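Why should sequence recovery work at all? Because a backbone constrains its sequence more than one might expect. Tight turns favour small or flexible residues, buried strands favour hydrophobic ones, and helices have their own preferences. The token representation captures these environments compactly. In the example below, the structure is given first.
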């Protein structure tokens, strides 16, 4: 585990950096998750040995620090990731993000259009309004969520998500959820439509049908599906997600 100091916050962003000779791939996790938790079973696939792999734990999650003064919005998370890219001296990279991480990845690509060569997202938020979990988390005021809502979320959760959401700062979880509900302007959808690098969208098979399966290709975005998986594809079928990513990133055995 490596560490990058975000000097404006006096906080450390932590990440895993696996060596490889090819263009680096940055992995960004979703709300309440952590790349250090989500992706090891994905990147053990032999195809990823061709590339340098960087698994980022966003601030507030996983092994990273949890500064209370940070907004935890998608845009500010994206800015921190771009600072990491600069600190690592990357002249080019690919980016993958899942769910909220997909929305963040879209913003990273829009901030670094000359550096990001391929953008891959899986079931991100394209529009404001949030998803089921983000709306549920955001419906309470932050102080009330910290006092009572967070513990209720943990008590009701039975999926592997519990393992990493337990490690996340409740204020970070709540502010991230609110950011997804509020959205950005222009929207994540408008941003990804406007980008010129190679763009891919990955669905879990159980999330289909979805209108974006037909809509995204109209804007030059290629679509893949992970079999035997829904939204939580990195847990449900890590090998299938690895196969989809290897296709999108042009990897081969």
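From this structural description, the recovered sequence reads:
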């Amino acid at each position: 585990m490596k560490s990058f100091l975000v000097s404006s916050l006096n906080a450390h962003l932590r990440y895993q950096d696996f060596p490889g000779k090819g263009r680096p791939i940055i992995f960004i996790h979703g709300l309440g998750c952590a790349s250090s938790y989500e992706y090891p079973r994905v990147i053990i696939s032999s195809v990823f040995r061709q590339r340098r792999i960087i698994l980022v734990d966003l601030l507030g999650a996983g092994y990273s620090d949890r500064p209370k003064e940070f907004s935890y919005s998608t845009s500010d998370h994206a800015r921190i990731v771009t600072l990491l890219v600069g600190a690592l001296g990357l002249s080019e990279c690919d980016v993958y993000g899942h769910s909220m991480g997909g929305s963040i990845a879209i913003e990273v690509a829009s901030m670094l259009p000359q550096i990001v060569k391929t953008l891959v997202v899986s079931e991100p938020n394209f529009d404001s309004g949030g998803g089921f979990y983000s709306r549920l988390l955001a419906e309470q005021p932050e102080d009330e969520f910290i006092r009572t809502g967070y513990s209720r979320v943990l008590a009701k959760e039975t999926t592997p998500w519990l393992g990493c959401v337990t490690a996340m700062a409740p204020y970070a979880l709540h502010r991230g959820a609110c950011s997804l509900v509020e959205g950005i302007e222009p929207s994540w959808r408008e941003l990804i439509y406007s980008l010129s690098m190679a763009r891919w969208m990955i669905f879990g098979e159980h999330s289909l049908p979805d209108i974006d399966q037909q809509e995204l290709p109209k804007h030059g975005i290629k679509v893949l599906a992970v079999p035997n998986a829904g939204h939580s594809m990195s847990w449900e079928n890590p090998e299938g997600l690895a196969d989809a990513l290897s296709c999108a990133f042009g990897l081969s055995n």
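A few observations help interpret the result. Residues 2-131+182-249 form a domain with the Rossmann fold fold (CATH 3.40.50.1820).
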